Amino acid sequence: MSRTLLRSAAPALRGAIVPPSIRLATTPLLLARAFNTTAPIVEPVPPEQQQHVKNAVNPTAHHVRPLAFKKSHPAPPPAPIEDSVRNLLPFLAAQPGHYITVHIHGFPYLVQEGDEIRLPFRMPGVLPGDVLRLNRASVIGSRDYTMKGAPHIDERVFECRATVTGTESEPLRIKIKKKRRQRRARRVHSKHRYTILRISELNIKNADDVEL
């Protein structure tokens, strides 16, 4: 019923005369809509006032660009302890139960005195009973103190010796190798041997015995 009334009254409303007060009230609204739809005018900014991508002013001849992000270290880090090796080496040597990370042919091993090492290869030129001086170490420590090298520790600080106890061999392995579309098969025999070492001595020298 309401739709029928609106349709019947539509021609009359189209021809109706709108009062001037209503016309004046609607005119600024239309103008505002038309003004808002226009594209904004962007004025060029001088190069010295342009902002950097990281929200900082571009550097010029008389201006240095400030840091855009917060500094991770606002104050310089504290200076290292002078003669730390000379001051702390006696405490490290006094504590028992030392451990060391020695490097043998590029392989690191974390051991203590009395431990055994099974090298993943057969060390050439050694026999059972030989004593080896291990002079490459990256870490020496005790319960409360640790000395780290960069990359290795001076060999005058410690003495680490290992005794060759013998060699071990794995069971014989036979691997059959084939190729596609060939009736021939090849058998490869392998029996690797390993050298066994025992850490017989581990001593850390005092600062008076070492000229650092």
Low-confidence stretches: 22-32
Q: Total helix count? A: 3
| Beta-strand percentage range | 25-35%
Distance between the termini: 108 Å
Q: What structural category do the secondary elements indicate? A: alpha+beta
> What sequence of helices (H) and strands (E) makes up the elements?
HHHEEEEEEEEEE
The strand count comes to: 10
Overall form? flat
- Give, in spatial order, the strands making up the sheet with the most strands: 2-1-5-6
> How helix-rich are the residues, as a percent range?
10-25%
Largest sheet: 4 strands, antiparallel
User: What is the radius of gyration?
Assistant: 43 Å
Average pLDDT, all residues = 76
Written description of the protein model:
Strands 2-1-5-6 form a four-stranded antiparallel sheet, with no helix packed on it. A four-stranded antiparallel sheet has the order 3-10-7-4. The chain has a two-stranded antiparallel ribbon with strand order 8-9. The protein has a domain at 97-204. The relative contact order is 0.13. Strand 8 (173-178) and strand 9 (185-190) form a beta hairpin. The N and C termini lie far apart (108 Å). The chain contains three helices and ten strands. The protein has helices at 2-14, 20-36, 84-94; strands at residues 99-104, 107-112, 116-118, 131-133, 137-141, 146-148, 158-169, 173-178, 185-190, 193-204. The radius of gyration is 43 Å and the shape is flat. Residues 22-32 have low confidence and may be disordered. The protein is of the alpha+beta class and 212 residues long.
